[in-house]
Amino acid sequence: MGSSDERQDLGVLFVHGIGQQKRGSTLVSFGEPLYRWFQERFDGIARSWSFTGLTFSQERDWLARKAPSWSGPGNSIDTTKHFETLNCLITGLSMDTPQGPLKPLEEVVNDAAGNFVCARAVLRDAQVTTTFNDAPSHALLELHALDREGTLHESRWLMAESWWAESFAAPRFRTLATWLIAIVPWTMGSHFGVRVRRSVRAFRAQSGLARVPAVLSLLKNFLMLLFSLPLAVLLELCIAAVVMFGLLPIPGLSRVLLAMEGLLASFLGDSLVLVASPMQQAAMIAQVHRDLVWLSERCKRVAVIAHSQGGAVAHRALRHARPPEVALLLTFGSGLRKLEELEQMSKENDGFFGRIYLTFAAVLMIGFSLTGAKILGTFGAMVAGMAGISIFVFLVFMYLFEYPAHAINWYGSQFRAQGLWWVDLYATDDPVSNGSLMDHESDVIGPESIEIVNERSLARDHTTYWRNTEEFVSLVSWALVHVIGEPWKSLSALPTGSYVTGKVRRRWRVRSLSAANLLATGSALAVVWSHAGAWRGLCMWTFAQMTSGVNVLFPGVIRHTTPVPPSREVWFATCGSLITIYASSRVLRWLWERWGSHELSNFFGVRPGVESGAPVSSWIRRFNPTSADTKTLNDMWFFFAMAVAPVFIAIWFAPALVGGHVINVGSALNWMVAVGLVASVIVLLGMDLAGARARKLAREREQALAKAASKDTKDV
Question: FRET partner for 263 with CA separation of 20 to 30 A, picked from 214, 288, 375, 418?
Fold first, then answer.
């Protein structure tokens, strides 16, 4: 262990989540967005000086007065970092020749930069895949900043990953399948039961018309709870089918099923290990603890950032023998609540054979009851149906019981008493975290839970945290700079108005993307519905091709007539339509990301003397701030224009949706071209008006700066 002066200011340990990540991938996927955030923030500070009208002459005058103090006696101090940091400011300055005396840089008002002239972020000594002496993959992040007095501030962060993906052996698929069949009904039921309980609390907390959204949310979540039981049965049948089909001696099918089995075992095996294998769970925890000790020996303070199941592993590693340097635990998309619940239910004395297996047995009983109601006589059908309904109601109410999060509450209190700050971030539609780790009551002490909006997608919310720059990455950087303190808290913190406005505008973009995706999904379903006969024939032909191998090995096992191969028109109306709609959705996604990248430049580019606009309540009014930025406006309007493309594609492939009867490619194309031309004219006119407004605002800003400079010259 080095001395206190030799150690880095902050160590950041990244803990990956569920899956089979490669060594170094977590360091890259977590560390790079964090580095880019600081880089963009510091570039915004440099741009803020150009907005004040600062000239190269003023910067050169400031350098001439401050540089002699950098060298020290005998020029023994290396000034490379000073000049490299100052170089970040020079590129955006005006080269205009001064017409008179200029105000010194120290007297130029720039509330966006505060007491700092410039700053930069640098990555050094990155060892991603090849390390030495059993060290984890790591990289050094250096932050340099020059204040108005010419003092260089430096902070060194050692970022490392804890790679525990190979600390356990993936269980056999049949073992995993048996475990999944047992827990699927309980896991799905408790997942939606939590949402119902939260909706009930929200309903009780409101009054009057404010209860209407709470009632709608309660109805939606209760219906999802009811449908979760049939869905659980289907999932169990799918798991059983994969196991059974894997036993058939079909070469092609066996390879596909084995790949599916391996993938499922890789991604869900660590959950089974954490619950059912104490020895391998201890191996995972020990790996994280070793990496934590390695980092603590080299850093004055340490922060742990853990994703998904890695949050549970890191949480257990910090429960005992925690190094005193650890000051922050930040979990996001954490599955700790579900894991704690599953572990509690897995204890034999707490109902593993009562609650979990009772749920599994009850689901089977529902299936038997429905089958009995179908094949038995009148009286037997009535008895079987009543039994099935009774068991169904029993399960629904059992899922509504509150899960006591004793472990999370206890260790949350312990961490707080020991000075460990625990922050938990969760996305609105992340199925793993499923909301806050704890449903906070007045007497509950737990982590500081913060809700963010990623993409409002069940499929993507769990994996897109680091793409959410405005909310997630900003909160992570905010937590880290609060650990190391000043001057980095003041330098890195975005103005409150800018942060809130950026968050509101991003949520508006996410809602726009959700609406566009919903429109594309509806268009695809409409095309499938309008060509139901073609799809039926295509599915029958595909099934015949898949089962032909079984008939070769076991003649007569599957009897069916050989369907007619689909024609070109059938392929065009079925797969062709969906592929076209999917291609348009990919283009839409690309436009949405371009729109977001241009919004980010405004998010980080805070203008001095301009208070960031408060969040606007009206949906239409959100176009107003955008119209001053031509690039953002172009992407935004093209996004909304492209959002309706799936509707045109659906009408093209299925004219019956609007009263047509046959596919007339020529007329459909003419109609689409005409609509496209009208939309292009509207977009171009809007772009022209926006450009004119942007030029007007630029002229007004230049006039204001010239007036202020003239006033300063007279004062001098």
Answer: 288
Contact 86, 150 (CB under 8 A): no
Contact predicate 480/6, CB 8 Å: no
CA distances from 656 to 124, 214, 314, 652, 663 (A): 62, 39, 57, 9, 9
Question: What angle, rounded to 10 degrees, do the helices at 645-653 and 577-604 form?
Answer: 170
Closest CA to 423 of 306, 287, 518: 306
Place of tokens 């099923």: 257
Confidence of residue 156 (pLDDT cuts 50, 70, 90): very high
pLDDT of 360 reads: 64
Query: What does the angle CA 570 – CA 575 – CA 577 come to, to the nearest 5 degrees?
Result: 95
CA angle 463, 466, 468 (to 5 degrees): 100
Q: How far apart are CA 480 and CA 488, in angstroms?
A: 10
Tokens of 462: 């769990």
Integer Cα distance of 697 and 706 in angstroms = 14
Q: Inform me whether the pLDDT recorded for 272 exceeds 80.
A: no
Which residues are registered as beta bridge partners of 424? 331, 449
Ranges assigned E (strand) in 259-406: 299-307, 326-332
For 218-246, the pLDDT digits (tens) are 888 888 887 877 777 777 777 777 767 66
Average the pLDDT over each of 82-86, 242-246, 480-484 and give the range with the smallest value. Answer: 242-246
